[in-house]
Q: What sequence folds into this?
């Protein structure tokens, strides 16, 4: 699988995944990342819209408490639900069959505040 990291137009340094937000019942997935994590830590985000299928695999559960995941590889796939995008990190791999993908540089919070709503689910204990 070819790596599409250069297509993001960031440069030659590495990135870290800092958060993933799923909204609209999985129809939209926002990945928050930082470019050049050892120096400038420039935030950017990848937004996958009109998702039809999401596959998620935790590769190393013992690292699940880490606050950032090393981006190892990315394949952007094809829009219009033709080919899935695959994001591979040192902790997890996620595959998304999507309609549209956008990249937002330096505007992670701005996009999220205007385009998604957070959903809170309250767990209640039920007697058996």
A:
């Amino acid at each position: 699988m070819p790596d599409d990291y250069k297509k993001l137009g960031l440069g030659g340094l590495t990135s870290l995944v800092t958060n993933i937000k799923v909204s609209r019942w999985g129809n939209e997935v926002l990945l928050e990342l930082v470019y050049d994590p050892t120096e400038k830590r420039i935030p950017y985000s990848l937004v996958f819209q009109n998702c039809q299928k999401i596959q998620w695999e935790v590769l190393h559960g013992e690292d699940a408490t880490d606050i950032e995941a090393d981006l190892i590889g990315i394949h952007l796939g094809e829009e219009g639900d033709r080919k899935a995008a695959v994001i591979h990190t040192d902790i997890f791999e996620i595959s998304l069959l999507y309609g549209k993908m956008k990249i937002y540089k330096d505007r992670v919070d701005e996009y999220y505040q205007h385009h998604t709503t957070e959903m809170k689910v309250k767990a209640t204990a039920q007697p058996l």
About this structure: The first strand starts at residue 15 and ends at 23. The radius of gyration is 15 Å. The beta strands are 15-23, 28-35, 42-49, 53-58, 69-75, 85-89, 92-97, 100-105.
